[in-house]
C-alpha cells in the first residue's frame, strides 16, 4: 500500500503490483500511471458527467461488472444523485479531477463510460454518438468504410463529426452539439440517419437491432443516444486481453482503414504528438435539423 497526496487530498493506493493484463504483463501501477499521463486530455470529456464504471479488481481474466451506483467514495468525491424509476434515487460517480480519476482507478476501474449529458442538464445530451459494430466476418476495416459514408451524410446535413476507435472491434462517430438538446429529438434524429444509411447501402449496413441479420454487415447503433445509455470515453482503457484504448483518430486514418488498434503506450505517444483530437467535441456548437 502507498499513500500519496494529490490536489490537497490523501489517497491510499493498494495492490500496485497486481497484474491486471496477464498477457501484456501490465499491473495496477501501470493503470494508474496511464490515467495520470492522459488525464489532461481525458478529463475534459468526463468532468461534470455521470459515469458507469467497469471494474476489474482481479484483472481482465477475473470477474468484472458495470457499476452504476457510486459507493464507498471519500467525502470530497463528486456524486450525482438523481431520481430513477419508482422513486429510487440513483447515485452516479462524477470524475472531475485527477484525484477522483486516480481514486476510481485504484478501485480496479479499467473502463469509464460517461453519459452524453452533464449534471447541469440531466438527460439533455450535448452530443450524438453512432456506435459502429461489425457482424463477423465484417471487421474494423468494414466499420471504417461505413464511418466515412456516415461522415459524408452528416456533412450533407451540415454537421461536423469526429471519429474514435471503440478500443474493441468497432468505431464511434461523435457529433458535438455544445448546448443541451431534447433527448428524444436526438434519439429520433440518430435513428433516421442510421436508417437512411442502411437503406442506401443494404448489403453492408444495418440499423436494426436484430443480431441474427448482422452477419457481414456493420450495425449502426443509434440506441446509444437514449438518455439512459453511456458510451466508453475517449482515452479510456478497455478490459480486453491487451490494454487497448478508445482512441480519437483523424478522418485520414479512418479512410486508410488500417492500423486502428492502439494500446496505452501508443495513445500516450499520440497525445504528446497530436494533442487532443477530440478537443472540439467539447466546444463546437451545432443544432440538429428537424427529423
Quickly describe the structure.
The chain has 291 residues and is α+β, with helices and mostly antiparallel strands. The chain contains six helices and 14 strands. Strands 5, 6, 7, 8 and 9 form a five-stranded antiparallel β-sheet that branches.
Fold and architecture overview:
- With 291 residues, the chain is of the alpha+beta class.
- The chain has helices at 28-46, 98-106, 140-156, 183-200, 251-256, 264-274; strands at 2-6, 9-13, 19-21, 26-27, 50-55, 65-67, 78-83, 89-94, 109-114, 127-134, 162-165, 171-176, 205-206, 218-221.
- Helix 1 (28-46) crosses helix 2 and helix 1 (28-46) packs across helix 6 (264-274).
- It is globular.
- It starts with a strand and ends in a 17-residue tail after the last helix.
- The mean pLDDT is 96.
Work out the helicity level: 25-40%
- Rg to the nearest angstrom? 19 Å
- Total of helices: 6
Tell me the overall shape: globular
The profile of the biggest β sheet is: 5 strands, antiparallel
Count of beta strands: 14
Low-confidence stretches: none
- SSE order, one letter for each helix or strand: EEEEHEEEEHEEHEEHEEHH
Terminal Cα span: 55 Å
Residue share in β-strands: 15-25%
Helix-strand category: alpha+beta
Mean pLDDT: 96
Amino acid at each position: 500500500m502507498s499513500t500519496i497526496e494529490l490536489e490537497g487530498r490523501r489517497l491510499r493506493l493498494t495492490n500496485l503490483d497486481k497484474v491486471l493484463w496477464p498477457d501484456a504483463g501490465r499491473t495496477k501501477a501501470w493503470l494508474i500511471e496511464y490515467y495520470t499521463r492522459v488525464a489532461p486530455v481525458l478529463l475534459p470529456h468526463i468532468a461534470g458527467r455521470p459515469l458507469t464504471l467497469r471494474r476489474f479488481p482481479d484483472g481482465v481474466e477475473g470477474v468484472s461488472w458495470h457499476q452504476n451506483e457510486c459507493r464507498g467514495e471519500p467525502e470530497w468525491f463528486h456524486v450525482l444523485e438523481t431520481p430513477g424509476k419508482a422513486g429510487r434515487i440513483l447515485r452516479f460517480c462524477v470524475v472531475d479531477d485527477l484525484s477522483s480519476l486516480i481514486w476510481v482507478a485504484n478501485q480496479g476501474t479499467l473502463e469509464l463510460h460517461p453519459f452524453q449529458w452533464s449534471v447541469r442538464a440531466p438527460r439533455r445530451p450535448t452530443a450524438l454518438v453512432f456506435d459502429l459494430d461489425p457482424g463477423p466476418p465484417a471487421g474494423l476495416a468494414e466499420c471504417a468504410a461505413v464511418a466515412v459514408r456516415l461522415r459524408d451524410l452528416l456533412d450533407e446535413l451540415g454537421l461536423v463529426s469526429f471519429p474514435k476507435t471503440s478500443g474493441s472491434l468497432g468505431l464511434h462517430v461523435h457529433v458535438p452539439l455544445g448546448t443541451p438538446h431534447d433527448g428524444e429529438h436526438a434519439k429520433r434524429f440518430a435513428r433516421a440517419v442510421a436508417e437512411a444509411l442502411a437503406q442506401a447501402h443494404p448489403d453492408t449496413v444495418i440499423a436494426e437491432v436484430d443480431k441474427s441479420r448482422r452477419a457481414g454487415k456493420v450495425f449502426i447503433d443509434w440506441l446509444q443516444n437514449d438518455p439512459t445509455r453511456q458510451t466508453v470515453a475517449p482515452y479510456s482503457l478497455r478490459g480486453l486481453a491487451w490494454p487497448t484504448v478508445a482512441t480519437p483518430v483523424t478522418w485520414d486514418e479512418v479512410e486508410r482503414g488500417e492500423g486502428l488498434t492502439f494500446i496505452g503506450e501508443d495513445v500516450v505517444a499520440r497525445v504528446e504528438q497530436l494533442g487532443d483530437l477530440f478537443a472540439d467535441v467539447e466546444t463546437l456548437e451545432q443544432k440538429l435539423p428537424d427529423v
